[in-house]
Design goal:
single chain; alpha/beta; Rossmann fold; 2 domains; seven-stranded parallel sheet; 13 strands; 19% strand
Length: 322
């Protein structure tokens, strides 16, 4: 772990039922790799703030200019896909004299920072200035992933698509799986969504947790979105079916599938039946599961946050921060 305990680091990220918690989790992962507590200026409502606190973050309120003046951080880390918001914070960080770090996906967004971190499997653009850490070697995953032990349950399937409007899709997929494989045990991670009133006996609703690492490490197959959870599944060697729950995730899922690191489809609307069929096919094909596990771990080794933290520390030591 890179210790930057003497640096004042402020993170900016959005989170919510529709946006998901991937940006917030990435900030927390980078903070852990840096050896600092995640202090986050959060874009989200009160319920989202409660979730961030439950995840071990400290949440702070205020405008970009006010917080940067009052806190005088050495480093500002912005992980926000909304370009206008990211630009506002980056501009304020530059005015305050911070080392500015921008975290992005697919090479898209506001890239005008001292250090750009884009751990995407697929890249569409490059930063206009500063230093860029690009590619899956720099995927910002929780440092504790590298210490997680496998304990596979041969009939256990994890469905983790997040909360909000994705919960209904997760239930549809789970029911289609148990229709095809009655002895399967499906665990649904629904984020901060309440447990549905009626779920089958073979389906267990997993409540909010700081991470799904243990759930992934025990599953034979994971059904995940095209965000952080897909990278986590690969790092843990869990064979995954990628589901682009929003259009922006389609290139990521397609890239994982093309590299042989996951199963999934990005053509047409998401079909619960099709996803369930992919999952059932994997459950019955041990050789394919081993292949996906091997390729996924080779591409995503779980140490990206450490590499990014080392780069932040080097830039700060070289005078990139006050």
């Amino acid at each position: 772990m890179t210790s930057c305990a003497d640096l004042r680091i402020l993170f900016r990220a959005p989170a919510g039922a529709r946006r998901g918690f991937g940006h917030l989790v990435r900030c927390r992962s980078l903070a852990r790799a840096l050896g600092v507590r995640p202090l986050i200026a959060l874009r989200g409502n009160a319920k989202v703030e409660e979730a961030a606190l439950a995840l071990g973050c400290d949440v702070i309120h205020g405008s970009a200019s006010h917080l940067l003046r009052s806190l005088a951080p050495d480093v500002l880390v912005v992980d926000d896909p909304v370009t206008a918001d990211a630009r506002r914070w980056i501009a304020a960080g530059r005015q305050a004299g911070c080392l500015v770090v921008s975290v992005h996906d697919l090479g898209i967004g506001c890239l005008d920072a001292d250090l750009v971190i884009d751990g995407s499997m697929a890249m569409n653009a490059r930063a206009r200035r500063g230093t860029t850490l690009a590619g899956p070697r720099f995927a910002l995953l929780d440092p504790s992933l590298v210490d997680e032990d496998e304990n596979r349950d041969p009939c256990s399937i994890l469905v983790a698509l997040g909360g909000g409007p994705r919960a209904e899709l997760a239930i549809d997929i789970s029911e289609a799986i148990v229709d095809a494989v009655p002895h399967a045990r499906v665990r649904v991670a629904g984020g901060f969504v309440s447990t549905p009133a009626h779920v089958r006996q073979q389906i267990t609703w997993v409540g909010p947790a700081r991470s799904l690492h243990q759930e992934m490490a025990r599953a034979s197959v994971a059904v995940v979105g095209g965000g952080v959870s897909l990278y986590e599944a690969c790092a843990l060697g869990t064979p995954a079916v990628g589901v682009p729950v929003v259009a922006a995730q389609r290139p990521t899922v397609a890239a994982f599938v093309a590299r042989g690191a996951a199963k999934g489809s990005t053509r047409g609307p998401v079909s619960a039946k099709q996803v369930a069929e992919e999952c059932v096919s994997l459950l019955s094909d041990a050789a394919m599961r081993r292949r996906l596990s091997r390729v996924g771990r080779r591409l995503i080794d779980g140490r990206g946050a450490f590499r990014a933290a080392a780069a932040v520390a080097r830039l700060a030591a070289a005078g990139g921060a006050r």
